[in-house]
Amino acid sequence: MSVKTSLLVISDRAASGERADETADLLRPVLTEAGFDLVDVRTVADERAAIAAALLASAGLAPLVLTTGGTGVGPRDVTPEATLEVVDFEIPGLGEEMRRRSVDSTIHALGSRATAGVIAGRAVVVNLPGRPQGAVACFRFVARALPHLVAVVVGPVTDESHAPPEA
Does 7 map to a domain? Predict the structure, then answer.
């Protein structure tokens, strides 16, 4: 059974139509292979209120919400703040693991402020980098942990939902 997943592409340029975003096209086969079903893709400008509203709407559509973009230190990078505004609590290990593994490819990963958490007790949200290849790589770094987290959040919690993921 696949986990329904929503993707929010956070980008001023993609939202305005200035450039196309490749993230959904690159992520879709990786998600499918890992047991996730991308059911919704939205593009949102780098505006904190718009991101927060889109996160809440996406949480109503799918128990896993992925975001791409807006996790750096630029003046328009507000995805972590919007995420923190709507989550009940953080899941810091996901952002930590993405930074830890990404630094092998780029030292710029140390500047990532990506976070993760639970929205309204019904969805797990994970912030991924805006660069499509980076989003795919970071998703792969945490993918094995996500089915368990989603299962526990959406419940009911069973012995199977606490079983360790297969290697």
Answer: yes
In a domain? residue 68: yes
The DSSP bridge pattern shows strands 64-68 and 116-119 to be unpaired
Find the helix or strand (DSSP H, E) in which 55 lies.
Answer: helix 48-59
Query: pLDDT for 46-87, tens place per residue?
Result: 999 999 999 999 999 999 999 999 999 999 999 999 999 999
CA distance 156 to 63: 13
Domain membership of residue 167 (yes or no) is no
Dump strand ranges (E) for the chain: 3-10, 36-44, 64-68, 87-90, 116-119, 123-128
Number of compact structural domains in the chain: 1
Domain harbouring 138, CATH code: 3.40.980.10
